[in-house]
Amino acid sequence: MKVYSNIEEFQKLGKAVVTTGTFDGVHLGHYKILDRLKEVARNCGGETVLLTFFPHPRMVLYPDSDLELINTQEEKIALLEKAGIDHLIIHPFSKKFSRLTSVAFIRDILVNQIGTHKLVIGYDHHFGRNREGSFDHLKEYGPLYGFEVEEIPAQDVRDIAVSSTKIRKALVSGDIKTTLAYLNHEFTLKGSVVHGAKKGRDLGYPTANIEIKEDYKIIPANGVYVVNVFTDGNSYKGMLNIGVRPTVSGTGKTIEVHILDYTGDLYGKEIEISLLARIRDEQKFDSEEALISQLGHDKLSTLKFFSE
């Protein structure tokens, strides 16, 4: 897959089969569109092109919305490459770009810059200034500019009933089961290991504290999770705590993982965590001894999850 950091880098194709959107999460609903995109490209001998944007348009147009995203840019690129897209354009979204009319978007970008032969879009997709562009708009201008347009039928999307908004709501409520069902791939957190208060070591459960550099990345609800941990090309079982550590007088929200059967120094290393299940809410215990006892139960729950 070829990746372009703006539309100007892209060289016009003879038969571009195109879709466009934010594609946050790259979830089941998105795969429906991508599968059709690839099918059309195979049938006409064309190449698939996905035009997306960063920052997310809502971040630019509504900066006070505090929108958090399911994917970092790195994660989205990896998922779309795995999905088998030929060309990925990540165009910078700005207020100036948002003022582009739908006709200018069709003419200047879809036709003159990309060379769109056929456009495949999701149900109720809108684009252009004030979201004035629609499927009907595209059907009107497609013949004029020499491309076809196809909308994924409403019932196809509704049968899956998936949206990025629903996935974000599931994550902030700690509903990992729904998240994984909607994504059809694992939700991950990736960051570097930094020094913490080392309270886990004192309790007999040393943890790696994770610092995520992308401040827009959504963090699931506070609690304890079963996870896989990937570092240095190896995979380990682990249990993750997200929260403020109330029993040991934590001073801020942390993301820390206890890796089972691991010995070594992780400080400064990049690790990736895949969330598999949620064990429980974060709790404040009456004593450190009670916390240690609960951590023992959490470890048994983690091991049971993997054994089953």
Element layout with pairings:
Blueprint: E1 2-4, E2 16-20, H1 28-44, E3 47-54, H2 57-61, H3 73-83, E4 87-92, H4 95-98, H5 102-114, E5 116-121, H6 135-145, E6 148-151, H7 154-160, H8 164-172, H9 176-183, E7 187-194, H10 199-203, E8 208-211, E9 223-231, E10 234-243, E11 254-259, E12 270-280, H11 288-307
Parallel strand pairs: 1-4, 2-3, 2-5, 3-4, 5-6
Antiparallel strand pairs: 7-8, 7-12, 8-11, 9-10, 9-12, 10-11
Helix pairs in contact: 5-6, 8-9
Descriptive notes:
- With 308 residues, this protein is α/β, with parallel strands linked by helices.
- 36% of the residues lie in helices and 26% in strands.
- The chain contains eleven helices and twelve strands.
- The protein has helices at residues 28-44, 57-61, 73-83, 95-98, 102-114, 135-145, 154-160, 164-172, 176-183, 199-203, 288-307; strands at 2-4, 16-20, 47-54, 87-92, 116-121, 148-151, 187-194, 208-211, 223-231, 234-243, 254-259, 270-280.
- Strands 1-4-3-2-5-6 form a six-stranded parallel sheet, with helices on both faces. Strands 7-8-11-10-9-12 form a six-stranded antiparallel beta barrel.
- A hairpin with a 2-residue loop joins β9 and β10 (234-243).
- α5 (102-114) crosses α6 and α8 (164-172) packs antiparallel against α9 (176-183).
- The longest helix is centred in the C-terminal third of the chain and has 20 residues, at 288-307.
- The protein starts with a strand and ends with a helix.
- The model has no long low-confidence stretch (mean pLDDT 90).
